[in-house]
Each structure stands twice: as C-alpha cells, then as structure tokens.
Amino acid sequence: MAGGSLLAPSLANRQINYKGRTTIPVLLACIAAASGGLIFGYDIGISGGVIAMDDFLIKFFPTVYVRKHAAHENNYCKYDNQGLQAFTSSLYLAALFASFGASYVTSNKGRRPTMLIGGLSFLVGAALNAAAENLAMLIIGRMMLGVGSVPVYLSEMAPPKLRGGLNIMFQQAVNFGILCANLINYGTANLQPWGWRLSLGLAAVPASLLTLAAIFLSDTPNSLIERGHLEQGKSVLQKIRGTPDVEAEFQDLVEASRVASTIKDPFLSIFRRKNRPQLTMAVLIPYFQQVTGINVITFYAPVLFQSIGFHSNASLYSAVITGLMLIIGTGISIFTVDKFGRRVLFLHGGILMFIGQVVTGLVLAFEFKGNEELSRGFAVVILVVTCVYVVSFAWSWGPLGWLVPSEVFALETRSAGQCITVAVNMLFTFAVAQSFLSMFCHFRFGIFLFFAGWVVVMTLFVHFFLPETKKVPIEEMQQEWSKHWYWRRFAQEQENQDDSKP
C-alpha cells in the first residue's frame, strides 16, 4: 500500500474538524511570500528594460550599442550577443543548482533559514548589480539573485482551505514584480547615465522585507514536527490558527511526518513504473511552460518591441501593458480555476496563445522587412495579439504550470516530484533566456511559428493525457490515473500487484 493511502483515512476523518481562522501570523506569512514573489518577478522583468538602455549598452556591450543605432542594420540581429543573454539567463542557472541546496536546508534546518539565506543573497545580488563596473560583477550579481529562494513557508502556514488560492496569489506577486520592473524601467530610462543602476538596485527593497520576515517570523509547524520538536510545533500551530483546539490538524501533521520518515529514497520511488504518470507530468508540464515562448515577453519585451520597429519609449510602455496583462490573466485564473477546472483553462489558453503566436509571425513575415520600421497599424496589431497571448498564458500555463504538478504526487514521491519540477523549469528557463536573441536573429519571424508549434503539442498533450485534478484530494489521485485511458496500464498494474499480496 502506498504511503499516501496510509494517510488518507486520517485526513478524510479529521480535516473537516480543523479549527482556526486567518490570524496576523498568517497575514505576515503572506507578506513574506509576496516579498519573495515580488523579488522573483522584479528580477525577471528588470533585465529586458535595462539591456534596452543605451547607457547600459555603452558601458558593457558597446558592439550591441553600435548595431542598435546603425542605419539599415538588420533589426532581427541587433541584440544577438551571448554575453547579453548570459546577463539574463545566469539567474536561472544559479536557481537550478540552488534548488537542490535549498531542499537540504529546508528539510534539515527549517524553512526560516532558507528564507534568510534567500533574503541576504537577494540583497548582495542587488548591490553587486547596482555597483557593477564590469560584466563579471553583473553576472555574479544576477547569480546571487538566483540563489535566493522562497520555500514552502506560505503553504504550510496557511489554513488548508486557503492554500489553493494563496498558491496562485504567489504567482500574482511574481506578475506584480514584473509590472513594477517595467514601470521602473520606463521611469529610469531617461536618468542618464545611471538610470540602469537604480533599476537594478531597487531589488533591495523587497529583499529587505523578506530578510526581516525571516528574522522575526516563527518556523512552520510542519518543519518543527518534521525535526522532532512536537511541543513547539503544536504551540506554533495554536498561535497561527488563533485557537488552542488544533488537535485534529496537529495529529495529521504528526502522522504525515511519520509516514514521510519511512520513505527512504523518494527519488528512487518516483522512477518506478507505477509512478510513470506523475514523473511524466513533473518533466513535461514545466518544459511545456517554457516552450510557450512566454519568457520571450517577460525577459525581452522592450528589446523585442524595439527590434520590430517600436521607438524606445513606445517599447517600454508596451512592456508595461503586457505586464499588466499578466496580472489581469492571473486574476481570471484565481476566480475560475476551482469553478471550471484545470483542463478547461489549459485548453482555452492554448488555443488563444496559438492564435497570438501565429498572427505575430505572419505579420512579421509579410509586413516587416527586418531593416525598416513596422507601420503604426501593424505595430498596434502586434501589441494587441501579444496582450491576448499574455492574458491567455496568465490564466493557464502560468499558474497552472506550478499548481498541477503539486497536485498529482503521492506522499512518498512529493518532495522528489517537486524538486524535478523546479529543476526542469529552471533548466529550460535558462535555455530560452540564453538562446532567444540568437534564435530571433536566425529564425526571424519563424521563431513565433516555432513556439506556436509547441503550443499545439502541449495543448494536445493536456487534452489526451492530463486528467482533471479539480477538487481531487491528493491521496485519491491514484484512482484518477486508474480511470485514464492511457495511464491506467501503469496504475492498474500496481493495484493488481497490491491485491495479490497476502
């Protein structure tokens, strides 16, 4: 019998008896998580506007500056530079390796130390970027921003009934960070010659909030119980729920910790045949999330809009508009994900994203010659379909690309599954960030058709291979795999093996 099913009766019997309310410690945890999401979003959005600033290019990438302003230069290739791409992508390469270290620290030292390390790392990274005098300082600073990470602190502090919404709210904080970055870049672009330093240095503001939160907030009950501090864990649980009557939830946490401690090698378990469906989701969903092409917009929006003929200010406020679309789309997801389900949002989002990418590619193919500006009318068309594309991503593959993988794993593979999900996401985020400007130069308008092709593949994958996870308890997901036309061959094989045991 799987470890997750050992826990299921306890949850089924006691979860309805959980007591408590939303308390000040939970609200403070929300602020801490929002700070972490704000930093991550800010770091995603800030680089695209900065590398479009002339003062930044003159100091670090003079050859790109010359190409940018050269008459009749091929607009598709003006920003094709490996060092420029490394400035953006280095954050995600560092995050890839840091995710493994963060997992160890979180499990053995608690959630707060990971938050503190993350906050301090963000502060150092912001300082290095703002004071940078050479490319090495820039890239090291970006890597320090990647080392910082926000652990599962919020989900463990929040009441169970609020966890789903708060999970997507964290994504909303990321989107707000992207919007803030685009607004700040718009404001600092004319502060010559140091506007780019201010843009990069302002990441220290949310980093300070995260660091202070890590110092003053308590660790989570889950973490304390995991490490054997049962009484302290119960005391913290009573504090954050605002009631001494927490026995039902406390016993579930103790039971979950006990079952988890019996799992000797979750990474070995996840590669067993019975877990093939979950492993497939852990790899393909984050991979598909990146080959939607969304990070073309979030990383390089100002550069992209400048390349296709927008003037500097127009490209920056166009990036602000797309940042706003991310917030609107995620807001739609928050209010619809539990009403319509995950599959509906995935499928509708995929269709509209496909249309947006194809229209962009076709407009560039027929109306943009590469060494001339796009006409005003077609520039507006590009901006509109980009907004449609971004909104569609933000209600579908944006938040659900993180939410669905967290819902499909049994207890014995949950930690390994989440680790694989994060690692795959960071790996391909790095790949897209490091290669896009070069791909844009060589593929030209075809890059949008390339991403559109992947959107077709991933939408078909959801249609045929992803079961609905809406309102399905994690402990019952194995039954959903057993009903699925394809995955049941793996799940039912395990059930038959279990039935044959005495």
From TrEMBL:
Domain (Major facilitator superfamily (MFS) profile) ranges: 29-470
Q: What GO MF annotations does this protein's record show?
A: monosaccharide transmembrane transporter activity; symporter activity
Q: What family does the Swiss-Prot or TrEMBL record give for this protein?
A: Belongs to the major facilitator superfamily. Sugar transporter (TC 2.A.1.1) family.
Q: Where in the cell is it found?
A: Membrane
Which UniProt keywords are given for this protein, alphabetically ordered?
Membrane, Sugar transport, Symport, Transmembrane, Transmembrane helix, Transport
Which coarse location class describes where this protein primarily resides?
membrane
Q: Which residues cross the membrane?
A: 24-42, 84-106, 113-130, 196-217, 279-303, 315-337, 344-366, 378-404, 416-437, 443-466
Q: Which GO terms describe its cellular component?
A: membrane
As for membrane topology, the entry says: Multi-pass membrane protein
InterPro entries, A to Z = MFS_dom, MFS_STP/MST-like_plant, MFS_sugar_transport-like, MFS_trans_sf, STP/PLT_plant, Sugar/inositol_transpt, Sugar_transporter_CS
Q: What name does the UniProt record give this protein?
A: Uncharacterized protein MST1-1
Q: Which Pfam families match?
A: Sugar_tr
Q: Which gene encodes it?
A: MST1-1
